[in-house]
Amino acid sequence: MKKTLTVLILLVLTIIISVQVGCGSFNPPQNTPDPTITDNTGGSTGGDEEDGHDVFRVFLVDEDGRPFYPPQPIFAQWSGEEGVYSAQVSERGFAQILDLDGDYRVTLSSLPSSYTYDPNNNFVDNVTPDITIEIKKILGSYNALDGSGQYRQAQLSQLGTYRVTLGSKSDGVFFSFTPRAGGIYSIESWADITANIVNPIVDEYNGTFAWNTKKGTVDGGGSESTYTKNFRMEMQLNDDEVGNTKIFAVHADTIGNNYPVSFDFTIKYEGRPPENVEVYEEVKAKGPFNTGENMDVPTGTFTYIYAETGILDEDLVIFNPDDKYYHVYDPVTKTMGGLLYARISTDSALLMTESGMGFKDSYIKLQFNGCDYSNFIEAYANSCQNGVHPVTEELKNFLFQYAVKERYFADGNGWAETIGLNSGEDDQWLFCCGYYA
Questions:
Q1: In sequence order, what are the beta bridge partners of 213?
Q2: All residues at 6 or more sequence positions from 329 whose CB lies less than 8 Å from its CB, including other chains
Q3: Cα–Cα distance measured from residue 278 to residue 202, given in angstroms and rounded to the nearest whole number
Q4: Class of the 49-134 domain?
Q5: Predicted structure pTM score
Q6: Measuring CA to CA, which residue among 187, 192, 193 is closest to residue 173?
Q7: Angstrom distance (rounded) from CA 320 to CA 357
């Protein structure tokens, strides 16, 4: 009897265990973080499928690659052809969602105001469903009062991400940034191309914080949509240029002229440029030079050829084949006057340097258009009297190329035009030329 009772008890226990096993296991609902994920930098992450469902995951990290723990509720959003799907980021810094199929762009909502991220380059699909998004600290917020003008810039002290708020279409914020190492730097805006309502623009300036001229405008180059075109501007510094201040101004257009508007931009160090990317051909000067027995020593007062009218006009000069120099010319009387001089080793009206040495200043870049004019200028500088040299045909050609490079005249937007000078395309080489009387 006792043996029979023991067998019955074992049979009952076996049935109970079999029933429990047959009931199956617990599956977490959609949008619930998988408890097998331990962190967002490695370790156990569970499988790519959960009970036959594709799992799409977003991991947030800070700028050091560590998990970013949200101080307030943040939602990850997957935008695809069939709609937008969202899941809350957990307190451990990740979010997940099930049953997605296709291509999606991932964005975040409700970030704390002191943080930001690049909203435009986070893409996932069924093959690569997981993505890590870097959360960046905003280093400073600025408006038009902080950098109110070309000579009142907001000074940025370090690489990183910044925010601008603009109150109107005419608002712009001027910034100055001084790189600490040679190499390539990028400045890129992060306006949301999904929202597609603001178009950031940046103006680049040449010069220093005390004197500068607009070089050009960048409207594009970054992530873009039908209206929003983020700017991306690169600048390269040689090692001997470290310490030079870079100046730029940020402004924006908006759909419907709706202001105020805010967007972020980031300054990055992209690294050293590849070696020997650009090879410059040395340009040698042939002269004739103002030396020897026929050396001319100018006397009197130097007067720019455009001083009377503010117009650079090469009809007022003529080339003399006898001495191979340009001279002042009167087109009315058709008479040739004295020598035409270019200011080479002394500053001119448009070329102003800290040293006062004109083209001889160490910060003047003489490598452009595939040519290196360093020795060319050195030869003419060694033959200067009072910092000037009579203009030869080859010197005229150099001055023309330099004026074009610097955009002194650019359809009304050049530096020379901002101070009241005007020139035709072929006449702009006269920017540093004049005569003595």
A1: 206
A2: 315, 316, 317, 318, 335, 336, 337
A3: 26
A4: mainly beta
A5: 0.55
A6: 187
A7: 28
The residue type found at 123 is: F
Q: Which of 80-84, 193-197, 249-253, 406-410 has the highest mean pLDDT?
A: 249-253
Residue 345, helix vs strand vs coil: coil
pLDDT in tens, 29-76: 344 433 333 333 333 333 345 444 589 999 999 999 999 999 999 999
Distance CA 48, CA 7 (A): 45
> Domain spans of the chain?
49-134, 138-271, 281-436
Q: 392-413: string of b/e by CB count within 10 Å (b at 16+)? A: bebbbebbbbbbbebbbbeeee
Q: At what angle do helices 374-381 and 393-406 cross, to 10 degrees?
A: 130
Helix (H) or strand (E) holding 396: helix 393-406
At 313 the pLDDT is: 96
Amino acid type, 306? Y
| DSSP track, 250-316 | EEEEEGGG---EEEEEEEEEEEPPPTTSS-PEEPPP----S-GGG-----S-EEETTTTTSEE-GGG
Local structure of residue 200 (DSSP, 8 states):
E
Taking only the tens place, the pLDDT of each residue in 84-107 is: 999 999 999 999 999 899 999 999
Task: Tell me which CATH code domain 138-271 carries.
Answer: 2.60.120.1300
Please state, in angstroms and as integers, the Cα–Cα distance from residue 94 to each residue in 13, 51, 70, 130, 395, following that order: 43, 20, 9, 10, 65
Which residue in 260, 257, 255 sits closest to 229, CA to CA?
255
| Cα–Cα dist 372/278, whole Å | 11
